[in-house]
Design goal:
Helix content: 25-40%
Structural class: alpha/beta
Protein name: Cyclic-phosphate processing receiver domain-containing protein
InterPro entries: cREC_REC
Organism: Paenibacillus mendelii
Order of helices and strands: EEHEHEHE
Shape: globular
Domain Cyclic-phosphate processing Receiver: 1-84
Number of helices: 3
Largest sheet: 5 strands, parallel
Oligomer: single chain
Length: 100
Amino acid sequence: MNIYLDDYRPCPNGFVLAKNVEECIALLEHAEVEILSLDYDLGWGRPTAIEVVHYIVENKRFPKTVYLHTSSPSGQMQMYQLLAKHAPTHVAIHLGPMPI
């Protein structure tokens, strides 16, 4: 399964859309994930994708590839640093969106 977490952008073909942290975590709990693409800000007053990253790290539910497609530079760095510190060496982490 491929997951695209974003509250605004359209979901790419071949991905399941999660519009919030809760939906994303529910998908991560029940499936092997090949590609996970994360936006950071998910709506005013809503939890951010750093909560998803914490879930991944704490539960060792690492996808094979992670893209950080957010437009928030500080959110992107927070997610990247936490993933890079804890991810197994086979997990690819990309600072930016998926290539077209």
